[in-house]
Write a structure and sequence with these properties.
This protein starts with 38 loop residues before the first strand and ends with a strand. The protein has a single domain, classed as Endonuclease/exonuclease/phosphatase (Deoxyribonuclease I, Chain A, 4-Layer Sandwich), CATH 3.60.10. Helix 1 packs across helix 2. By secondary structure, the protein is of the alpha+beta class. The chain is built from three helices and twelve strands; from the N terminus they run βαβαβββββαβββββ. This is Endonuclease/exonuclease/phosphatase family protein.
């Protein structure tokens, strides 16, 4: 991937049992009709390093759109996305007259060019995108911000992409990021992301933050984001109340939530990962969302070396 997983300290991550399937939507997922909304998806698509799914750009596009439709998604956040992948999805989702809802989108580049993106088209930029359910104008492009995160390394300028958008008729500041895993970068970048998103919350925005954070939930460097369990931030995480993933004395089965969750990276799709672990997140502003649900789809070899992460939440105010 540029490689967000290959050299990580995943020995500390939580081992879990996973059910594998051929695609991003898994048969053991609870019926989404019974889950709240809005609905969110976050997915590191490994665009520059992973092969094109089934050797076909349309097959890759249709796989992502199928997962988005199956979850009845309101916000889709994609990381490690080549510009050509974004335009494939943007053009397909931008004005669907039948077969599913339309989506507005914004893009941000973290690399001006990388050879691995050439398979997606002549524009070899690489970065992040946010898709919001609705037609053109759903996302306020004037509110789009790209924050350059501290300590760029290995040629990639890590970024935080944010924009104000409508989600189920309410205003949301949607933010997407992909943190580095090297040295002191995770700590510095997580603190900066927390500060920027707290600023949006202080302006009265409901904030949704998703991305690949390259750290397990109990890592203290994520304290600036979490609202609980020793954290100092404004967020709860979508998959923090699934007791099947509560482990350790700090995560008793009697508790309601824990810094935990289902693995989003494991050896079947990520050969350099030694143990399954959670490194992808959907963070939800605790002042606006308190009923949350999360689930990681099975990985799809050749599609990505991450799992797609799904979330549902309920408005609380």
């Amino acid at each position: 991937m540029m490689r967000s997983l290959g050299r990580m300290l995943l020995a500390v991550l939580l081992p879990v049992g996973l059910l594998f399937a051929a695609g991003p939507v898994r048969a053991d997922v609870p019926d989404p009709v019974n889950w709240p909304r809005p609905r969110f998806l976050s997915y590191n698509v490994c665009g520059a390093s992973c092969s094109i799914h089934q050797g076909s750009k349309p097959a890759w596009r249709d796989k992502v759109i199928g997962a988005t439709d199956a979850w009845d998604t309101d916000l889709l956040m994609l990381q490690e996305l080549c510009h050509g992948q974004w335009t494939l999805l943007r053009d397909a989702l931008g004005n669907r007259s039948s077969g599913g809802p339309s989506y507005d989108s914004v893009w941000g580049a973290s690399l001006g060019s990388t050879p691995g993106c050439a398979k997606w088209g002549p524009d070899t930029r690489y970065g992040l995108a946010v898709f919001a359910r609705g037609g053109p104008g759903t996302i306020d492009n004037g509110s789009r911000t790209v924050t350059f995160l501290d300590r760029p390394s290995a040629g990639e300028q890590r970024i935080l992409l944010c924009a104000r958008t409508r989600v189920t008729g309410r205003d949301v500041r949607a933010c997407n990021t992909h943190l580095d895993y090297r040295g002191d970068n995770p700590r510095a970048q997580a603190a900066q992301v927390a500060a920027v998103t707290r600023g949006f919350a202080n302006q009265g925005d409901a904030v949704v933050l998703a991305g690949d954070f390259n750290m397990p939930p109990k890592d203290r460097r994520l304290d600036p984001l979490y609202h609980h369990s020793g954290g100092t931030g404004i967020f709860q995480e979508a998959d923090e109340n699934d007791k099947s993933h509560f482990t350790g004395t700090d995560c008793p089965q009697s508790g309601d939530r824990c810094r935990s969750g289902e693995a989003t990276a494991e050896p079947v799709c990520s050969p350099r990962v030694t143990e399954p672990g959670k490194i992808d997140y959907i963070f939800l502003d605790h002042a606006w969302f308190q009923t949350v649900r999360g689930d990681a789809a099975a990985c799809t070899p050749g599609m990505s070396d991450h799992h797609l992460l799904r979330s549902a939440a309920a408005w609380e105010r």
